[in-house]
Amino acid sequence: MTVQKLPIAKAINESLRKAMETDPKVLIMGEDVGKLGGVFRVTDGLQKDFGEGRVIDTPLAESGIVGTAIGLALRGYRPVVEIQFDGFVFPAYDQIVTQLAKMHARALGKIKLPVVVRIPYGGGIGAVEHHSESPEALFAHVPGLKVVSPSNASDAYWMMQQAIQSDDPVIYFEPKRRYWDKSEVDTEAIPGPLHKARTVVAGSDLTLVAYGPMVKVCVEAAAAAAEEGKSIEVVDLRSMSPIDFDAVQASVEKTGRLVVVHEAPVFYGAGAEIAARITERSFYHLEAPVLRVGGYHAPYPPARLEEEYLPGLDRVLDAVDRSLAY
């Protein structure tokens, strides 16, 4: 049976398993990924089935983990690195930005670094700071890195397959509060391009663009708006670098309005780049300024306040109303 209903976490697990079965050069590395199966159990059972030589429990040293992965990639392996939580990636930021992202260009294309860096990101799980952040814009800003984030189990499965097969380094952001959201996965489907956006809900009055954890919120917003007679289109970006601006442009030139939604702070977020590009490309089609909805420009708050910090249904609908009022 090729079609199963899986949660995102299990879909990633199945995708890693498939990649390891297919290619003996695929390795998994990270803190507690082996015996424990990861803190979210995404790598559960893989060390038992593939051994400690291919699913490697590392020391608590993110810079060392990524640095080792770079060395392995230079030797022909395809390492998949897990950063346990989003905020733990920064000790490895130097390795990622100055080595992983630059080696291909530095070697004039002669060296490739097929490394996947998995990062559970975002809030909504009641965790403290450094466990609930959304640093995707920092990596999308760096030339030489591909940056992606699935919003559903099917994309989680296939985007991981494509990330591992990529000869370029991929930062793979996993929306941790959606790990247990289920959807159908066809493991024998033919996936679309890794960096192609997808229209989730068709509409004609306004376009909502989101990725990762906020796609579900935007779908809910479209449903709520439909009860008031508003037709909202929802586009799942899927990739933050490169961005499928053509898909966003086509939607906006149909609807005339755009609201970009992400968990990360609005200030210097991915939404700023999308707003600027679409304003340049589609100025004469816009019926209202491009609006952005996201987190506040402040450190991630204690769990008791995170629902106030995270953009939810009401903040998205408020932006929809403001856009439609122009």
Automatic annotation (TrEMBL):
PANTHER family assigned: PYRUVATE DEHYDROGENASE E1 COMPONENT BETA SUBUNIT, PYRUVATE DEHYDROGENASE E1 COMPONENT SUBUNIT BETA
Keyword Oxidoreductase among record annotations: yes
Pfam families: Transket_pyr, Transketolase_C
Cofactor requirement: thiamine diphosphate
Highest taxon above the source species: Bacteria
Stored InterPro entries: THDP-binding, Transketo_C/PFOR_II, Transketolase-like_Pyr-bd, Transketolase_C
Listed name of the protein: Alpha-ketoacid dehydrogenase subunit beta
Domain Transketolase-like pyrimidine-binding as annotated: residue spans: 6-181
Keyword entries, A-Z: Oxidoreductase, Thiamine pyrophosphate
